[in-house]
Amino acid sequence: MNPLEELIAKRVGRFGPLPFDQVMDLALYHPELGFYATGGRPGRREGDFITSPEVGPLFGAVVAGALDRWWEEMGRPDPYVVVEAGAGTGMLARTVLLAEPACAKALRYVLVDRSAALRVEHGRALDLTPPPFGLGPSVLDADGLERPARVGVGPVVVSLGELPSLDRPVVVIANELLDNLAFRVLERTERRWQEVRVGIDADEVRLTEVLVPAEDDQVQLIAALAPGAPPGARVPVQDEAGRWLRRALHLAAPGGRVVAIDYAARTAELAARPVGDWLRTYVGQGRGGDPIERLGQQDITADVCIDQLARVRAPAVETSQADWLRSHGIDALVEDGRRVWTERAAVADLEALRARSRISESEALLDPTGLGAFTVLEWTA
Ligand SMILES: C[S@@+](CC[C@H](N)C(=O)[O-])C[C@H]1O[C@@H](n2cnc3c(N)ncnc32)[C@H](O)[C@@H]1O
Fold first, then answer.
1. Whose CA is nearest to atom 10 of ligand 1?
2. Is the pLDDT confidence value at 76 over 60?
3. What pairs with residue 18 in β-bridges?
4. Counting Cβ atoms within 10 Å, is residue 326 exposed (0-12), middle (13-18) or buried (19+)?
5. Which pLDDT belongs to residue 250?
6. Rounded CA gap, 49 and 44, in Å?
7. Does the Cβ of 321 fall within 6 Å of ligand 1?
8. How far apart are CA 159 and CA 148, in angstroms?
9. How would you classify the pairing of strands 146-148 and 193-200?
10. Is 51 in the pocket of ligand 1 (CB under 6 A)?
11. Residue 277: how many CB atoms within 10 A of its CB?
């Protein structure tokens, strides 16, 4: 057993078999031994898995356009606060700013990541302002209304370990965060739903799965969402994702919005698939092993259950990533890239190569069997 597994084994010795969410949380986020503390990260070269922002700058450019659209819809506030939750290496923030959105002068871009190691990356990649970040002192205008003392000072970029509390409408955006939040696992047996917990084998040398009767509220939830699940079916119970959505909606405040992009499905669909199909592990750009093996050394992730999130609040928008990117102008950006490449191909300078890269990036981002099939969910708060 590695040191994290030993720590988990000790807890099992004290408390009995642990729910999978507790084990997953430690495996990913233990401050010294967890996957994200020991070098686990998204990325093309050194990363363990690739995400849309890490494909290249095109995804951030489209998001920048969406931020501009929402800024206009909100009446061009200054400051305009965008909170990116689960910001990873900071690549989305970098590429959004690189695209020079019209809202930049008003922008307060807050990166939030639970991993201290990845927050260090934010400082490397971006010019950060230390928190608590100045939304700035306010002054009273002629009508006695509070106005910011300074406008047009953006972009101000801040990195935090958790969601802030703010008193204004906010756009909260999260790419591939929810799939990484810890969940419990239930299994349908012949007679009932049971919970998959993590115990230790008789020789006390290996962590192993243990089935225990599932708690009533979980059985009720899953029986309602996956009534026809056959014996042997497994499903996740994603309470932590629901709690995060509640906090994000509260932060967004009336007039704001929450946007989550992820691989997603409905609970009944997952019940019909083999568990290894929706509960996956990744390491070094490849699939990892069993989720309770190599704890702390591989990413653990699951498809996000849209119907479980909808119990917190039904999303106003549910669409594929491909359609969302198209509705926010990816085709025009790619066309632009194609034009520049045609004009400058003979020179083959950096601008020409960047322009050409848009074409291959768009193919990856729109791929109907890959990133393009991800789901974009939007809630208006
Ligand atoms: C799969 S990575 C995605 C990173 C980035 N959004 C991207 O698309 O490349 C998930 C990230 O969420 C972070 N994370 C997990 N739980 C979090 C939480 N409760 N609040 C903020 N960040 C969290 C992890 O540390 C990790 O960096």
1. 177
2. yes
3. 198
4. middle
5. 97
6. 7
7. no
8. 22
9. unpaired
10. yes
11. 10
- Whether the per-residue pLDDT at 258 is higher than 60: the answer is yes
Strands (E), the chain: 18-19, 80-85, 107-112, 138-140, 146-148, 156-160, 170-175, 184-188, 193-200, 207-213, 234-237, 257-262, 264-265, 279-283, 286-287, 299-302, 304-305, 317-320, 375-380
| Cβ atoms of residues 363 and 56 within 8 Å | no
How far, in Å, is the centroid of ligand 1 from the Cα of 299? 11
- Mean residue pLDDT of the chain comes to 94
| Contact criterion met (CB below 8 Å) for 148 and 116 | no
| Burial of residue 181 (number of CB atoms within 10 Å: 0-12, 13-18, 19+) | buried
Q: Which residue among 50, 59, 113, 299 has the greatest number of ligand 1 atoms within 8 angstroms of its CB, and so is best to mutate?
A: 113
Strand 170-175 with 156-160, pairing: unpaired
pLDDT at 136: 63
Asked if residues 188 and 230 have their Cβ atoms less than 8 Å apart, the reply is yes
- What are the structural domains, with CATH classification, of the chain? 3-25+183-235 (no CATH), 52-181+239-327+366-380 (3.40.50.12710), 333-361 (no CATH)
Mean pLDDT throughout 279-301? 93
pLDDT in tens, 30-70: 999 999 999 888 887 677 789 999 999 999 999 999 999 99
Q: How far is the CA of 257 from the centre of ligand 1 (A)?
A: 19
